[in-house]
Amino acid sequence: MKNLRKITVATMLLFGTAFSWAANQINGDGTSSWTSTSSTTTIKAGDYLQLRDMKITFGDAEDTNTSWTWHGGNSGMIPNQMPSTDGTKNTLVTSFSTTSPFGTLPKRGNFFKLESVADGTVTINCKPSTDGEQKLIIVTMKEDNSAVEAATSQSQSTSSVSFDVKANRTYYFFQLAKSGLLTGYRFTFKGASFQKVKTDGGCAGNYSVSQPCGNTDYKCSYFNINSAAIAEALGMTETDFKANYKADNSGSVIMSMYNTEGKLVTSTNAGADSYSGYWMNKDGKQSKWATTGCIFFVFDPEGRIGIGQMPTTETGNAHVNAGEVITFPIVFSNNDKYVTVNVAYNVTADANQEYNLTTADTDFYSLCLGYDAIIPEGVEAYTGTIDAGKNVVKLEKVETIIPARSAVLVKSATAGSYTFKMTSDGVSVKANDIMGVLEDTNVTEIPAKGKTVLQFGIKNGEVGFRQPTADGIIKANRAYILVDAAAAAKPFCIEMGYETTGITTVKDNKVDNISYNIAGQRVNNNAKGLVIRGGKKYFKPVGRIKYALN
């Protein structure tokens, strides 16, 4: 056996077989990210990170001269050689084109080979050399790995490099070397992560919340969200969803939001009442507290969202103003699934806003308010869905709170005056085809996008949506719908299709006590001049008793 071993070794030397290190996995299985620490042992060329769905190999196993060791000052792993083709300063990779012909890939020294089994985004955390000529290079290989397909470069003035990858493709990442300088002292590898493309679980709720501007502290207003719907979209039970979310995003359930570059961020930067969340600018994008941050939100895993403002006592920051609306999505993810919760934050002038509606009868009236409003006792409110095939708007009852800027139809049990007061409790927003205006608006100013505007009103004792009045003005806090021009030829009636009362079409058959002017507009029963009531014409001059004309 000894002689056989000698012969084998001699044969390997004779034919010039290259010696290579035994490659080692440097992390545990099943992780989606890895960060180097002072306890990380020396990494040899050929060693690899096995992330979930992504393998990252350090250099080439046949390179016996390159290794990565911990550097406390840079808080990461530093290679002893920069990228080259044969391991010497004479073959350093100091340039690489982003167009064909690209250049020669390194085979020795500091570079990383990335192999993915799924579509996703890989992130390399590093401290590159600050030399402006030493660009960071990302290389995409052809599907058969025969040659370079594409290459991009990125400035070295970064601490994190992210790029998208495709399943079953190979990529390379490295920093260009400095001419004549073999050492890799200035490049530090800190860690890496891979985020698989997630399955979109859709929207798990739309919510509206109103607050007055001018907070003096960081106090939140909380409102409930549907945790069960979020959990279902993520393929979990509600119990597992709550258990796997952690305030520092260290659990399997991750809460994130978009930054100004349109990328999801997972590092929370806001907190209140032991809960974590994000600061936002007026565009609803994640921002820093000290720059453009004006509002923030936090998440309570029991099923609540809390929202607060930058206090007026803080100076030098963007603040919100009355009338502004900030919309933003909150993204929850679990492994390869994600779901969105949408929030509309309505800024009001004060906390005591209210709107008085006087009803002359028990018929329908339209209403649109700029704040979340409590439905008063004795009033019912309805959103609507257009059925263009039948020229009807089907109504669905709203419970308790009318969301800000959500137009509704309301009716009272008895004629009278009703007050709609503001609330900051927050409310779920239903799908609604009924729209509205907060101030007098000409129909020509409404972005109809090829549709026809029909305003809500009453004519001939029947409520519905019809062609606008001659002046084209929709009064403040009133409603309208948008329909195709062909469907607009006939008015849209009201149908209580979601109720169990058996009522199908709402018409005002009791027209005896309802008055209209000659333009068909409803008027007060005490109106002067020519009016129509119950199909008859009446004239009431000033100071005289009204009488029927026919």
Quick summary:
With 550 residues, this protein is mainly beta. The protein contains 3 helices and 44 strands. The strands form 10 sheets. It has a 6-stranded antiparallel β-sheet, with no helix packed on it. A 6-stranded mixed β-sheet has the order 17-16-22-23-14-32, covered by helices on one side. Strands 15-21-20-19-18 form a 5-stranded antiparallel β-sheet, with no helix packed on it.
Please render the helix and strand layout as text.
Elements: H1 2-14, E1 33-35, E2 43-44, E3 48-51, E4 54-58, E5 67-71, E6 76-79, E7 112-116, E8 120-127, E9 136-141, E10 148-154, E11 160-165, E12 169-175, E13 188-196, E14 199-212, E15 221-224, H2 227-233, H3 238-244, E16 253-258, E17 264-265, E18 270-272, E19 275-280, E20 295-300, E21 304-309, E22 325-334, E23 337-348, E24 354-359, E25 364-367, E26 373-374, E27 379-387, E28 392-398, E29 401-402, E30 408-412, E31 416-422, E32 427-428, E33 435-436, E34 441-442, E35 452-459, E36 462-466, E37 473-474, E38 479-483, E39 493-495, E40 515-516, E41 522-523, E42 529-533, E43 536-540, E44 547-548
Parallel strand pairs: 14-23, 28-39
Antiparallel strand pairs: 1-13, 2-5, 3-4, 4-7, 5-6, 7-12, 8-11, 8-13, 9-10, 9-12, 14-32, 15-21, 16-17, 16-22, 18-19, 19-20, 20-21, 22-23, 24-31, 25-30, 26-29, 26-31, 27-28, 27-30, 33-38, 34-37, 35-36, 35-38, 40-41, 40-42, 42-43, 43-44
Strand arrangement across the biggest beta sheet: 3-4-7-12-9-10
What percentage of residues falls in helices of 4 or more residues? under 10%
User: What would you report as the Rg, rounded to the nearest angstrom?
Assistant: 34 Å
Number of domains: 4
CATH architecture of the largest domain: Sandwich
Structure class: mainly beta
How many strand elements?
A: 44
Query: What general outline do the C-alpha atoms trace?
Result: elongated
